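Look at a sample.

——
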Amino acid sequence: MMRFSTLMKHPADWMTGGSTDNSIVLTSRIRLARNLAHHPFPGWAKKNQRRRVMELLQPTVEALPAMKDGFSKELSDLDSMHKQVMVERHLISREHAARGEGSAAVIERRQSVAIMINEEDHLRMQSIRPGLDLGEAFSSLSALDDQLADEVEYAFDGKLGYLTTCPTNLGTGMRASAMLHLPALVLSDQIGQVLQAVNKIGLAVRGIFGEGSESLGHLFQISNQSTLGESEEAILERLGRVIAQVEKNERYAREKLMEDDPDMVRDKIGRAYGLLRHAWLISSKEALEYVSMLRLGADLGCFEDDTVRICDELLMDIQPAHLQLHSGRKLSPEERDAIRAEIVRSRLQSLDAPDTGKIEDQNNGENPPPDLGLA
């Protein structure tokens, strides 16, 4: 199996975007919750019962064709820094990182599929794809789920569907979500209106690390709330439609900002470039905000094509645990701010100043504002 250092050496496939348009919708993620029949669920299981489930599931998951040459580890064999790095890479949840003996993670070598064993449920499986591609993320994970179902017996009820620890996951056991970069909606003070409309139709909006986390770097995660009484296809169709509408809202907000206040847009992008290129101390929150503005500038054509990929890698690499992994030791907050600034300066040293002449009125008035009802 793959070593942790090898896993961390390469960015995940979904982080680099490839040929996919990920200017606004960065990633699509599908997560399935499953439990084994005839075994107590993790929250009620004793330590030896949890270990028995892990010893059954870990080799079974490792043997799946998709997980060949992947990474597999008991969480008790990883220190807190390594676990936090995996949280920052969205490979395991914060709740899973807090668990110890009897829990494990198995991760596909390209980091597109990750399986948590004994998190809140016996199995939490996720698939991540770049851009708006919920269908592909679901089909690849569904195939893997079918393979596992041939090897183990799931806890399933004819009326309720898949049985889960939390009642909100009953039924399909599926959470579908997308991570969106929405700086123009934030700058134009429309974000509240859009997110309120999303909430009204039964979808959840969360921050960069999911439930209970704040939005940083103008990144928002939109996901389904209900999993019972609706098919996977219906959930994906509705969510995809809403995400596509929010994407249109963001595009229109960008056009409107460039029409109404191009100097403000130039100033935000120029300041972000100057501070990131020359700062010697920078906090995580501040860095994420400026990287977000740099990414917006790249999307508007102010920087060379490769800048979006650099920004996406920085969004991950300047997180606290990644900095400590880079340094090989535990860092104080002040040391993190200095090393974060050093890494950012290094990555951006060959980036030319923004061509803000590209920021002009791109809205010819033909496009009406998108419907914020999102229905």
About this structure: The longest strand covers residues 25-34.
